[in-house]
Amino acid sequence: MEAVLDAVERSSRGKNEARRLRVSGKIPAVVYGGKDGGKAIAVDPKVLAKILRTEQGANTLISLNVPGAGDARVLVREYQLDPITHELLHADFYRVAMDKLLRVQVTVVPQGEPKGVKQQGGVLDIVHRQIEIECLPADIPTHIEVDVSELMVGQSVRVKDVATNPKWTAITDAETMLLHIIIPKVEEAPVADAAAAGAAAAPAEPEVIKKGKKDEEAAEAAPAPAAGKKEKK
Fold first, then answer.
1. Residue 112 predicted with pLDDT over 90
2. How far apart are CA 230 and CA 6, in angstroms?
3. HSE-up of 106 (CA within 13 Å, CB side)?
4. pTM for the complete prediction?
5. Residues 11, 15, 19, CA angle at the centre, nearest 5°?
6. CA atoms of 150 and 113, how far apart (whole Å)
């Protein structure tokens, strides 16, 4: 999917310029790549946020329109959010060539309900949610589907098990586990409850532990005959 984002060049930088832009309804951004290196621009945060909320998210191919500079195909490199309001504060883009391969992270989406869950009471545990692939910019998939309906407890899906596609190649190590079916762990009783249960079964034991130090002190202060009794035993 390709989106369109309008932008304008900005000649100044700094905190004051950033504040001024945000007041006017835009945010500062930078486009990397190309002969001129990083180019300072400003974009509408609402339009960019809408793009980032799509299924493809940061992998969305964007047609960046800058007056006087022509169209450019870019991807979002990174972006900054306000920690409280979660509004966009800044964004970085990088230019892509439509005829050159690039590497991106794509989300893996399990399809179906595993037999190991329905029949054996197992749980689907996702180990890695994304894999890295190599493809042309126009061929970036929104996600990669993995059929898990036949999985039983103890079985897994690794990168090598994912169906191949002529438009992209998996770069992540083939042996990397993506998901597996496991038996849920039995929750252990809290330590306090376990201690209480032990006290009920053997009420004398806690007393011995509590008084152990006093017994040692009493033994050290005991008269010599006590030692003699021990030898007779």
1. yes
2. 95
3. 26
4. 0.72
5. 90
6. 8
4, with CB counted inside 10 A (0-12, 13-18, 19+), is exposed
Question: pLDDT (tens digit, 9 = 90+) per residue, 118-169?
Answer: 999 999 999 999 999 999 999 999 999 999 999 999 999 999 999 889 999 9
The total of other beta-carbon atoms located within 10 Å of residue 233's CB is 4
pLDDT digits (tens, 9 = 90+) for 196-212: 555 555 544 443 333 34
The residues, any chain, with a CB within 8 Å of residue 26's CB and separated by 6 or more, are: 8, 42, 43, 44, 45
Q: Can you read off the two tokens belonging to residue 223?
A: 């008269």
Q: For 63-93, b where at least 16 C-beta lie within 10 A, e where not — what string?
A: ebebeebeebbbbbeebeeeeeeeebbbbeb
- Residue where the block lists tokens 């900005």: 10
Instruction: Write the secondary structure of the chain as one string of H (helix), E (strand) and C (coil).
Output: CEEEEEEEECCCCCHHHHHHHHHCCCEEEEEECCCCCCEEEEECHHHHHHHHCCCCHHHCEEEEEECCCEEEEEEEEEEEECCCCCCEEEEEEEECCCCCCEEEEEEEEEECCCHHHHCCCCEEEECCCEEEEEECHHHCCCCEEEECCCCCCCCEEEHHHCCCECCEEECCCCCCEEEEEECCCCCCCCHHHHHHHHHHHCCHHHHHHHHHHHHHHHHHHCCHHHHHHHHHC
